[in-house]
């Protein structure tokens, strides 16, 4: 029996959620210089996830700013290229008293994931 995408997602949901949560726990706030190590940590985590997901290569490119993660998966060189872009930095979480739970400890409430970066753009 051929598996559908929905079936695959259902089977892998726990793994995918934990991968997302590992990213959400990293306070990769690019606007604050003291979080430069977190930006590096998040880049390395993305590299691990991309390689674990089947990318042929995943490279961290150092820049004068934050690191860039570049990955490739070539199925057939004669096919068209698909480019996916995402950023992994987040805005500062202040004011912290407005959060119902710590911003870098993701929580699921009423079917939604709450945590800084959950939908822009780590999710």
Task: Kindly describe this structure.
This protein has helices at 5-24, 36-52; strands at 57-61, 68-72, 107-109, 112-114. With 123 residues, it is α+β, with helices and mostly antiparallel strands. The strands form two sheets. A two-stranded antiparallel sheet has the order 1-2. A two-stranded antiparallel ribbon has the order 3-4. A hairpin with a 6-residue loop joins strand 1 and strand 2. The radius of gyration is 16 Å and the shape is flat. The two termini are 31 Å apart. The mean pLDDT is 94.
Q: Kindly, what is the distance between the CA atoms of the first and last residues, rounded to a whole number of angstroms?
A: 31 Å
Please provide the ordered H/E string of secondary-structure elements: HHEEEE
> Which strand order spans the largest sheet, edge to edge or round the barrel?
1-2
The radius of gyration over CA amounts to 16 Å
**Major sheet details:** 2 strands, antiparallel
List the uncertain runs: none
Mean pLDDT across all residues, rounded?
94
In percent, how much strand structure appears in the residues? 5-15%
What structural class do helix, strand and pairing data support? alpha+beta
Q: Percent range for helical residues?
A: 25-40%
Q: How many DSSP-defined strands?
A: 4
| Tally of DSSP helical segments | 2
Structural shape: flat
Structure in a nutshell:
Helix content is 30%, strand content 13%. It is of the alpha+beta class.
Primary descriptors:
123 residues; two-stranded antiparallel ribbon; 13% strand; two-stranded antiparallel sheet; alpha+beta
Strand and helix layout:
Elements: H1 5-24, H2 36-52, E1 57-61, E2 68-72, E3 107-109, E4 112-114
Antiparallel strand pairs: 1-2, 3-4
């Amino acid at each position: 029996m051929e598996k559908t995408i929905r079936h695959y997602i259902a089977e892998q949901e726990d793994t995918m959620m934990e991968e997302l949560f590992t990213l959400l726990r990293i306070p990769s706030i690019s606007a604050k210089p003291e979080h430069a190590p977190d930006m590096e940590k998040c880049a390395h985590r993305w590299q691990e996830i991309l390689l674990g997901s089947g990318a042929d290569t995943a490279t961290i490119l150092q820049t004068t700013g934050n690191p860039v993660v570049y990955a490739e998966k070539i199925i057939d060189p004669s096919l068209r290229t698909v480019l996916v872009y995402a950023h992994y930095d987040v805005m500062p979480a202040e004011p912290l008293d407005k959060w119902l739970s710590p911003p870098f400890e993701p929580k699921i409430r009423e079917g939604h994931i709450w945590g800084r970066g959950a939908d822009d753009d780590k999710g």
